[in-house]
Target: 6,7-dimethyl-8-ribityllumazine synthase
Amino acid sequence: MQRAVKKITVSSKSRSLKLAVVVADFNEEITKGLLKGALKAIHDSGLERKQVRVYHVAGSFEVAELAMRLAKTKRLEAIVCLGAIIKGETTHDQHLASAVTHGLMQIGLDTGVAIGLGVITANNMVQARARCGADKYNRGYAAVVAAILLATQKI
Amino acid sequence: MQRAVKKITVSSKSRSLKLAVVVADFNEEITKGLLKGALKAIHDSGLERKQVRVYHVAGSFEVAELAMRLAKTKRLEAIVCLGAIIKGETTHDQHLASAVTHGLMQIGLDTGVAIGLGVITANNMVQARARCGADKYNRGYAAVVAAILLATQKI
Amino acid sequence: MQRAVKKITVSSKSRSLKLAVVVADFNEEITKGLLKGALKAIHDSGLERKQVRVYHVAGSFEVAELAMRLAKTKRLEAIVCLGAIIKGETTHDQHLASAVTHGLMQIGLDTGVAIGLGVITANNMVQARARCGADKYNRGYAAVVAAILLATQKI
Amino acid sequence: MQRAVKKITVSSKSRSLKLAVVVADFNEEITKGLLKGALKAIHDSGLERKQVRVYHVAGSFEVAELAMRLAKTKRLEAIVCLGAIIKGETTHDQHLASAVTHGLMQIGLDTGVAIGLGVITANNMVQARARCGADKYNRGYAAVVAAILLATQKI
Amino acid sequence: MQRAVKKITVSSKSRSLKLAVVVADFNEEITKGLLKGALKAIHDSGLERKQVRVYHVAGSFEVAELAMRLAKTKRLEAIVCLGAIIKGETTHDQHLASAVTHGLMQIGLDTGVAIGLGVITANNMVQARARCGADKYNRGYAAVVAAILLATQKI
Model:
């Protein structure tokens, strides 16, 4: 991952990049960690804080809804989507995770804005915590790297 | 959740918000509780009753169908969708829950209207009851809060 | 369910309603029962037979295909879709049921025509028979009621 | 099934029908059987060979891709899709089967061309062989019958 | 497979074919093997290296996103998509694989560009390695063959 970030840092294209982060407050313990990781990746990539706006929504379903609204403004090159869907007693989490993942994919395909997939689907809090900590497994960090690489990819 | 509601209450933007609630009558014991929770959240958010219209349909499949029709009128900023899909003997509930969740996502992405996901998918009535009672786990309440926050989010 | 039907009967809006029933002939023992239930619900709702046309197709996949063609004619307010997908040795039934349920949802969302979901997904013939008999559990009956209520819903 | 075919034979509408068959070469032992069944059904339906074109692609994923290209030409009333997805060690087959079934559904809904679903999803070769033999369980045969009935259905 | 490639080699249509390969760097050990297989298939098919461009993205989600952007340029006849989704502790891989497979299907259906499905979904590294080696089971190789055949298919 570090190598990937290095590539981003040297790219002059990322200097003008406009990026949004949409984060769900549900399972806040986890999503705060994802957001921290995302902001660290943004910093490591050499983006300035003013290139970035952070939006808070209630849950992962709303992350996708807001991401689409943001994508349609055509003001952004990348939107990083952060949320935490934890398995509960019912199958709710599976339907939600499916709809959100497919929904985020659709936003990317329909609008061309680079969507960073930082929505965790975990079976329990232990798994979720392992994906939002201060190390290289932070999926918020990875989602930012992926989205910046994609947004700055020349085709 | 209370904090979230507080944020809504102070927002002047929610004063002019037009919101619809679409509720399925199937598994009425559950969906009545969801509706009660939703109306409480609307009240707690400082919305007046005249800003809100409630629509009844047969089941969760029809909730999505009507929500799309309402969303296309462009008269509304938010639509809260309430239903209860309980696991039965067959896989019907899983296909229905998948289609409804993806369908509600599509409405949000296509129209930009804030969709509140208040459709319960539960394995049994005990689980369903635990999600429609007079406490903070009422998913109708949560869906209203999520939808109002999303609808009043400045981007 | 009876209450729901009563509401339909008194509605003057349903008097001019144009409704189609699309029924799959595959698993004919079951779908004949569904059709019977659907026609009974149509009768109970006070619709006249001339307001209704019945179409036969081979299987549930084709039900969705024809329903979309019918919906696009804009001559109809409601289309009731009847079929029976029974679990076999393979996973064919699950993929089919998923595609059909999502497909019918898409028709409703895209066209605004009220779609009645009367496609059974059952693990065996016993379960299927229990959903197409001459009682209140007939899903063809329920699908008609749901579709008429939806189609006559003022928004 | 025989009755259904008889109905097709007498229909004068099928005389001018243009139909394509798209067949995957992957798991050729199975798909050759499906194609044989499909061609028999075409013959039994009274269609002449010149009304039909057969296209070969690599696998079931490509069947859907080519079927959409063909459907968009607007030269065809029906496209019969033949493939064999057999369960392997991984979940690849499930994701593929899901995407192909939903994809074929989408083609039918978007274009109005009658799509015959002749893609087998089987857990093993025994199950696959049982669905492509010289008997009434040949799914290629059934897919042709279903597609012709649908394409010639007056609405 | 060899036979299929032979057919491609003789086709004069593939001489002017423009093809892109999009490869995910995540699980690089596997995707490097897929890329090697893909480039070998391109060579075996008689395409010259200048007819082909290779793009690197972070993961399989981004493969689909970039493939859509490339497809919309209308400069390409085929896009081969390479990635490796390996089962982890959570259900993340299943949702990702579902969204990616459906997403790649949608690109093919929407744009008409031939999409080669070379995204592996494996339960473990052993299964993944078995699908990216220097033999006929390399899915990168197979995806190129499938895509070229499809792109050069006259309809």
About this structure: Strands of chain E lie at 19-24, 52-57, 78-86, 114-122. The two ends of chain E are 22 Å apart (CA to CA). Chain E has six helices and four strands.
